Fold this sequence. Notes:
heterodimer, A: alpha/beta, D-Maltodextrin-Binding Protein, domain 2, 2 domains, three-stranded parallel beta sheet, 14 helices, 14 strands, globular, B: mainly alpha, MetI-like fold, 17 helices
Amino acid sequence: MKISVRACRLAAGVLLLCSTAIAAQAATTLETVKARGKLICGVSMGTTGFALADAQGKFAGFDVDVCRAIASAVFGDPTKIDFVLTNINTRFQSLQSGEIDVLSRQTTMTYSREASLGIDFGPTVFYDGQGLMVAKSLEVASAKDLDGAAICTLPGTTTAQNLADFFRATGKKFELVVFENPDENNNAFFSGRCDAVSSDRSDLASIRAASKSPNDYLVLPETISKEPLAPAVRQNDSNWRDIVSWSVWTMMAAEEKGITQANVEEKLKSEDPEVQRMLGITDELGTMLGLDKAFGYNIIKNVGNYAEVFDRNLGEQTALGLSRGPNAQWNNGGLLYAPPFR
Amino acid sequence: MSTMANSGEEQIAIRAPAQSGGLGASAYFGTPANTIVTLLCLALLALAAKVAVSWLVINAVFDGTPEDCKASVGACWPYLTAKLRYMLFGIYPFEEQWRPLTATALFILAITISCIPRLWSRWLLLGWVVLLPVLYLLMAGGAFGLAEVPTSQWGGLPLSFMLTFVGLVCALPLGILLALARLSNLPAIRILAVTFIELVRGVPLISILFMASVMLPLFMPDGVTIDKLLRAQVAIILFAAAYIAEIVRAGLQALPRGQTEAAQALGLHYWQYTFLVIIPQALKTVIPPLVSLFIGFFQDTTLVTIVGLLDFLNTVRTALRDPNWQGIAVLEGYLFAAAVYFVFSALMGAYSRFLEKHFRVGYD
């Protein structure tokens, strides 16, 4: 009761200011995006490898490239995007309220999020999982050997919950040390305040890369949770969800078919009927979704295939230095499996 | 034990006045105990200074690459030069960053001019009414050949400035009205003011910002969104107004009743005596708490990160995650942020002391 009074008060104040902005809007997301001439993509406020602005304020990263692929599919132009920074606590509201068209922000797809938040997830773009990192000097080879360890984490109910579940299963004790700020969390670990640090494995790689001597630290082999990261859209707009899904699958299928940013022109002459359909040479798959028939060509030409995007942002050559692991193609021991283009 | 402590306290109590009079060496070296404490403090200071100087200057890298910094044990200043524009302007388009720079410069100039009591006039007020839309246009673009830059891309120091000063400039009149309303003889107005002030003061700023970004959209019709910068700005204005109202009320109540009575005897009606006699005097008495509130708000604007706005502290923080520099420069970025916040807070504090002196002329 108290809350709603307060909120009404706020709402009343702001309503006046925005009354001019009110316009009936029943259009689909695709129509809205096309009319606006720009895709509005919600990304993280700054995560190495996934979304980070460089010294010139230009965004780059894995999540950013997913946005660029969608913009390429819709406009044939990867620059027609406004990036909106989303806070981890308010990211879903940004999507629900229509402030952003798609949320591409290291977000784990879960049952309750999909069922109760008024959002739909696209395909998993990155298979992550919570892990633990220790100093090599601790001489621990497995998370099962940790007993009575102090573990640093960032706040977040699932992180702590996963640790509690894991340690209950192993029958060992642990002590949770929670930090609000990532820098403090990392420093606490490096200074020996904690025996281990726990986060998503991709994040652990980035913490390790940031240390003065990465070789002194070891990410333990156990993955104690499943964290499939996926882009999200508003619920009940299946056309828009299809566009996001097939933009992602285009990149995955392109890797499978050996189409790269460099050879996509050559592949226009390919004899493979599926490649011809993907690139819009035969059939007009794009028009079924309200896109250009060459949307697949545009994505690969502008952004590249999945392997290129992965290597550029997260791969062995980058600061994160991640191996493909579960994010390899299905025929290569991984989990990536794009449905057929037909 | 207790008697000893008591007698010690008495001794201090007796000595204190005598010592506070002279600031000579005896204050620091008067007794053996004092001498030891003084020397110990000096030694600690010297040690701290030595560590600081060797880190800041002697071992520091002033020019070079991330690799040079990694090899050194001192501060890494090339980091600041490399990331300076990002820290100052965030993700505002690089080629257009002259616009926030100009806007901030104009803004600071206008604030400086407004700080000179001799220039206070209606013209100044009019100047602000003209300036603010101009600054907005300069930042947002979309006219006069300026490229459009949505507010979601504003960031860094201009954003912090804007949230603080636009917030306080709007909150001050609102706060004064609320304070007057709270002292009103009309119960309806008084109760409304008390309710607003107590409700807003009863929750932290971060929860109001959170509410503005989470609850507010739920009240809106489908597809209608309010610019998140506007949401944060309005939340800050409402929050600041409640605090300003209480400070101004203290000033109003500190005034002798005779001021009102004398003004009424002269035949001034409510608005005349309130704004010509009461408010100017009340504001003078509350300059110190008002300025500390302003300084507090300047620093509290960093909380807008909750709605996904990149203010200055948060551009500094995200700049630290640049993979090229990650793990190399951490303290440097925070030191830079601290220095910037300190300079502006200290300027506000100095101006407050100046104002107090200025207004005391004729009183002493």
